[in-house]
Sequence to fold (296 residues):
Amino acid sequence: MENCIRMIGVPVDLGQEQRGVDLGPGALRYAGLSTRLSELGYIVEDIGNLPVPVRDVLGAERELRYLPSIRQVCETVYLAGRSAITQGFMPIFMGGDHSMAVGSIGGVTDEQPAAVIWVDAHGDFNTPQSTITGNIHGMALAALLGEGFPELVNVGRPGAKLHASDIILIGLRELDPQERLRLRGSGIKAYTMRDIDERGMAAIAHEALGRLAHRTRLHVSLDLDGLDPLEVPGVGTTAPGGITYREAQLLMEIIADTGLLRSMDIVEINPILDHSNRTAKIAVELTASAFGASIL
Fold:
């Protein structure tokens, strides 16, 4: 069933403060994600949105940064991801903020490991001790490596879900001071915007995939704020000087060439801040390229 895709909506907005990111799954559907993938020959199943608590009724959790509810959401996402893989589907998780990746990546690696390409302006490698904002979407990658809140580290199964050698970060340009120090000592290979500017996306993409050649399955975690905000205005945590649309397309096309992509996150789309659903439309085209759409 390698031609079967399962779309899973995760309208979580609890990992950050900007309202509206919970509307991301609907924006992707409206932009025609299912139709676009079907046109490529895939059998697409959309199971709707997973249950996520409404932030406005979680006042008692505010001081906890909504950690109990985020943990529960990630547990649900984990089960959905594991089930999709077990049933032979390639899951696409539609966020929602990036905190959901604790569950999605955990779930798709439940039975066998996968390499991860994490496209993001930010490292998401904070812990409760290093964070400036306290926002949990900035701690997702750290939790997947076994660091941070035990409630997140142990989602789905105890302990780390990834090794440092399984992860490539692409598009970095905004890090907290302590997060920068942590990332330098982590063993994770990170390509910053300077690397992309100096060497070009093609060289970066091929080198990144070479570093991940020890795995036979690939997960892409696409945070739309990895792209330049001039290209994608509908994101909550903007950082100027990001990946261009064409660079992002090339990265996805090169990923598709490997034939190893088995799952994907699309996160941090905020339709309230967008212009005519432009960001979701771009996300749909990038997803299509990752799953094999080509110019010729």
The radius of gyration is 17 Å.
